[in-house]
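User: Here's a chain of 134 residues. Predict its fold as tokens.
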Amino acid sequence: MKLFAKVWIFLLVLTAVEVFLAYLHTPLTIMLVALIGLSSLKAAYIIAYFMHMKYERRLLRWLLFPAPIVFILALLAMLPDAAHGQCVMCQRTAAAQEASRQATLNKGIAIMAAPPVLGMAALFWRARRSTKPE
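Assistant: Prediction complete.
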């Protein structure tokens, strides 16, 4: 399997882990820290492989390295506010429902996520198929 396909699959697995974390009933602060960490890891892989920074000179990589660190620190500084700043409509709708309707709401969110994921998978499959030597 080619390197970019492996990286794409790894990114897809990380995205699935992020979605799975939303369904676990972990404390909100822990979940937000985990999501920031996973998103940072995904961003690093995208920058390294798809933006070809892995193959650049070391000096250029070191010049660009401080910016994501400052960004992550800024996100972590805003974490206490993010823990309480949820979408009011979603929060009140879910809180007003019984457990079975909350589960249905979560399933609806997962169903809404399926078309973009399947569309990206189809595009990837088509691109991979068209680049194979025959």
